[in-house]
Amino acid sequence: MVPYFQANPGIGAAEAAAELGVTTKQLMSDLNQLWMCGLPGYGPGDLIDLSFSEESIEVTFSAGIDRPLRLTSLEATALLVALRSIADLPGMVDPSAAHSAIAKIESAISGREFEARSVPAPVEAPSVATVRSALANAHALRMVYYSASRDVVSERTVDPIRIVLVDNNSYLQAWCREAEGVRLFRLDRIEVATELGEPARPPAEAAADETSALDLFVDDPAVPLARLLIHADYLWVLDQYPMHRVAAHPDGNIEATMRFATLDWMARLLLGFGSGVTVLGPPELVTAVRERSGTALAAYSALAQDNSTEFHLTGLEEVGPA
Predict the structure, then answer these.
(1) Is position 67 within any domain?
(2) Is the residue at 315 inside a domain?
């Protein structure tokens, strides 16, 4: 924008917007943002200075930005990788804008003319779009949310603070009115979201603390702690789940701990590992896993017997008297 307005001093907003392919309203908004851009340091002498109205726009100090940006091949590739990585994460960016930017950069690299109509508009989940809208408008939200750790669906009202990226998943960081604390809500687990007409009012200290509640599993003594023995060929689970190593055995096995919300959920998780993970405690978790294992083995035995009986019956029918 800066080189364009330097080359066209005093141009009106309507004419400039038409040439740049944006609305006048968008152009004025971009100019307001441009006013606060410049070189590192960002003192009064470093920021871009301009005078603008709908009748006339003129750059009075360019802060050294005297030519359009030209990306190197490496820079363009890095930008494309970054855009693609966040475009598919719910809520991190407007997916339509991100995919449009990707198409424009690819067109610039390839030398082909960009056509906006050739870029398919990504479909964003309605609940995610509502969350982004509530954040932009500083409105409260009512949500229907599935909690995987407790395996329950709940309805709650929250005051949105920001969207954050934790362990390659996007979360809404918000003040939960029911819990009276800052919580993280994974965006792809928000089943329904309704933007309320009332303003969001998270406590000032919660909104100011950008790291608040970013640990998905806080080491809260009130939350049950499982003690596990991870067998050597199953050590990958340490990278996939919030576990803490406490001891290493000579045979390569690792003892670890993990907080869990409900006994049923933790028992189901551990059964999925089969013999790769052994439960050491607490006793109620050991009992739950043993009982579930026994039930599963009994079901398999019954199924095997049924299949065997069916086979013999079928054989009798085949070789029975003529």
Answers:
(1) no
(2) yes
Determine the Cα–Cα distance for residues 189 and 185; give it in Å rounded to an integer. 7
The answer as to whether 193 is a domain residue is: yes
| Residue 267 identity | A
Angle, helices 263-271 vs 283-319, to 10°: value is 50
Half-sphere exposure of 204 (CA within 13 A, CB side): 0
Reported confidence tier of residue 104, pLDDT bands at 50, 70, 90:
confident
44-47: long-range contacts (C-beta < 8 A, 24 or more apart)?
A: none
Find the domain containing 137 and state its range: 129-208
Query: In degrees rounded to 5, what are phi and psi of residue 312?
Result: -65, -40
> How many domains are contained in the chain?
4
- Token pair 């970013």: residue: 214
Both 89 and 38 in one domain: the answer is no
The DSSP letter of residue 51 is E
Q: Enter the tokens of residue 306.
A: 């049924």
Q: Model pTM?
A: 0.49
> Token pair for residue 280?
């050491």
**Whether residue 267 sits in one domain with residue 292:** yes
pLDDT in tens, 201-237: 988 887 776 555 555 544 455 678 899 999 999 999 8
∠ Cα 57 59 63 (to 5°): 155
Same domain, residue pair 280 and 203: no
